[in-house]
Design goal:
This protein is mainly beta and about 375 residues long. The protein has one helix and 33 strands. The protein has one helix at about 245, and strands at about 5-10, 20-25, 35, 45, 55, 60, 65-70, 80-85, 90-95, 110-115, 120, 125-130, 135-140, 150-155, 155-160, 165-170, 175, 180, 185-190, 195-200, 205-210, 215-220, 225-230, 235-240, 255-260, 260-265, 275-280, 285-290, 295-300, 305-310, 320-325, 325-340, 340-360. The strands form seven sheets. Strands 1, 3, 4, 5, 27, 28, 29, 30, 31, 32 and 33 form an eleven-stranded mixed β-sheet that branches. It has a five-stranded antiparallel β-sheet with strand order 2-24-23-22-21, with no helix packed on it. It has a four-stranded antiparallel β-sheet with strand order 6-7-8-9, with no helix packed on it. A hairpin with a 2-residue loop joins strand 31 (about 320-325) and strand 32 (about 325-340). The longest helix is centred in the middle third of the chain and has 4 residues, at about 245. It is globular.
Length: about 375
């Protein structure tokens, strides 16, 4: 089995615009709290030089059973499950490449956890469904050109279709949410509360769902990311991006990196900003991803109140990618130096959990109730 990470240099990594939100039309709210990741506290879950966990794709957390589902190069055509308590491997769920009903025609493109612990795995053409023990249940081929991400929307799998959302009905047919159309150039025409808006997408939309709403995060050439909220009753909202996450890094910003005794200096802007939506288990929307300074934010969809999540210092070395209880899962990027310069992998070989500390502001009601000042 090949356990070597697919690697790329920092300068080859695409730059994506930030994503997070405060709802247009929702109560106005500035960031009521700023949280910092306390990397001096916490514990290591996985620390294995041969591990290569993919960090530029979806991962899923089973908070009830304390399980992390992720892609690892040990099993490139499977989802691997790890204990969040011990880091031990629990099971491997095969997702072979192929044309069969239990296969993914072009490989894996995303995954999510259902409300009862079932796992959905998207693969460009179809979605595979597994029970909480990893046993195959069913497959669904939605009427969309490319299946890139999946969520569970009111008890059924749903996928993003650039201009909206497609949900599987209990009888297996497609249910569509959202007006608009998409051409092959990925120019999207969306109907928003302010009228029709045309966007040219740089990267695929990302999706996360509750029983009542599907959150679609897109980016565009014209400006920062947007969040479209497709409600179960057919209503559509558009959310704006808070300034803390949309601000461009200073052109003069440089990070000093030391690898194997060799020092490098890299511009901060080479690190991609690609934040994925998820839920924190309490109904809050989480947008976290790759950023040298501000991984993302946690947003209360009901009030628009949000908390900004920051690293204790600017760094390429690790990324906070998931909220677990009142802490974050941090993935350390594989790094190495060769004749071509400093390189960062798109995979991680170390996963740790660290508490969040409030450094300013007052908490949003009900959000991260046990987070203290630090």
């Amino acid at each position: 089995m090949n356990r070597t990470a697919s690697r790329c240099t920092v300068t080859q990594l695409a730059v994506a615009t930030a994503a997070a939100a405060t709802a247009i039309g929702a109560p106005a709210a500035d960031a009521q709290q700023v949280l910092v990741i306390d990397t001096a506290a916490g514990r290591v879950i996985i620390d294995d030089e041969w591990r290569a966990i993919r960090t530029f794709g979806d991962m899923a957390l089973d908070r009830t059973r304390a399980i992390l589902y992720a892609r690892d190069d040990e099993e490139p055509e499977a989802v691997m499950a790890f204990s969040l308590e011990t880091g031990e491997w629990i099971r491997t769920i095969p997702t072979p490449t192929g044309d069969g009903p239990r296969e993914l025609q072009q490989g894996m493109a995303g995954m999510t956890l259902g409300s009862d612990g079932r796992l959905y795995v998207a693969g460009y053409v179809r979605v595979l469904e597994f029970d909480p023990l990893g046993q195959y249940v069913s497959n669904w081929r939605p009427g969309v050109e490319t299946v890139r991400g999946v969520c569970e929307f009111d008890g059924q799998p749903a996928v993003v279709a650039y201009s909206g959302v497609i949900r599987r009905r209990p009888d297996g047919t497609d249910e569509r949410f959202g007006p608009g159309f998409v051409d092959r150039g990925r120019t999207t025409v969306e109907e928003t509360p302010d009228g029709l808006v045309t966007r040219t997408s740089r990267s695929p939309p990302r999706i996360a769902c509750t029983a009542d709403a599907a959150y679609v995060v897109t980016d565009s050439e014209e400006g920062p990311d947007s969040v479209f909220v497709h409600h179960r009753d057919g209503r559509l909202e558009s959310w704006a991006v808070p300034g803390e996450l949309a601000e461009a890094l200073d052109d003069d910003c440089k990070l000093a990196v030391n690898q194997s005794g060799v020092s490098f200096e890299l511009p901060c802007s080479v690190w991609p900003r690609y934040r994925r939506p998820s839920l924190d288990g309490r109904g809050d929307l989480v947008l976290l991803g790759h950023d040298v300074e501000v991984p993302g934010a946690i947003i209360d969809p009901e009030t628009g109140c949000y908390a900004v999540v920051r690293k204790p210092e600017r760094t390429f070395a690790h990324d906070a990618l998931n909220i677990y209880r009142d802490s974050v899962l941090v993935f350390r990027n594989v790094a190495w130096e060769n004749d071509q310069g400093f390189n960062l992998s798109t995979a991680a070989n170390r996963v740790s959990i660290h508490p969040l500390r409030r450094v300013s502001g007052a908490p949003c009601p009900g959000m991260l109730p046990s987070v203290g000042d630090g």
